[in-house]
Amino acid sequence: MSAPLLEVDNLRVSFHLRTGTVEAVRGVSFALGRERLGIVGESGSGKSQTGRAILGLTPPPGEVRADRLTFDGIDLLKASKRQLRDLRGGRMTMVMQDPKYSLNPVMTIGAQMIEAYRAHVRAGKAEAREKTLDMLAAVKLRDPARVFSLYPHEVSGGMGQRAMIAMMLVTDPDLLIADEPTSALDVTVQQEVLRILDNLVAERGMGLIFISHDLRLVSSFCDRVLVMYGGKVMEELAAGDLDAARHPYTRGLMNCLPALEGSSHPLPVLERDPAWAQ
After folding, report:
1. Based on the number of CB atoms within 10 Å of its own CB, is 267 exposed (0-12), middle (13-18) or buried (19 or more)?
2. What is the value of pTM for the model shown?
């Protein structure tokens, strides 16, 4: 059996503020192969901070600690800044939640993708342009040459999100972290983006961490699911085994999912035990 691509053991992310220390992530552990892992939880559960910590994107005054945090055998906590820069954007990438805040508004989409590609791959402008156009076509954008020359404000939300996915995949990474990549999209475009991610992960053999608050979406798309609350993992299980979830928090999330049949009155209430956050 091959070694995991990513190993996370007892990951902790703390923010030291004037008012005290806030522990955003507390003892998260998991291993990731070339598969799709979903991390689901409410806002503030620590799922996004987990993804950022893996890439070394925790902003000051944040502190990241772990018993083990390795990518393909590389200790990410001991890696030099140069080594992290080479890994981040090259072999490890992250799709942010909203392209409006991630794409540079004064550069065309094509120019940004070429810049990202040439930062990690020794290539001329012609080769980088060809690779960029190929990647825009791979994410099912019609008329890639036209999108290449557009500015971020000239594309729709769905097009912007697909362009962002193309930019993060243009360097052929081994690990992609997708942080709420479909939350700002309507259902039709959401399904298109998921199909694109699914095909690209299968074709390229990548590892994918899919971060979302939508339990149903994660369970239908991922192979395994981590359920987080209060910075901790409440439960880990195969996506197909969600109906057999045992933790009351996971069961509560499932009970709150809307159903097409049956009465929705009274509306279910998610009860939270203070002991879960201890």
Report:
1. exposed
2. 0.90
Phi and psi at 62, nearest 5°, equal: -75, 150
Residue 232 CA to residue 47 CA, distance in Å, equals 9
Residue 11: pLDDT band by 50, 70, 90 thresholds? very high
Quick one: CA dihedral 89, 174, 180, 26, positive or negative?
Answer: negative
Residue 263: what pLDDT?
A: 66
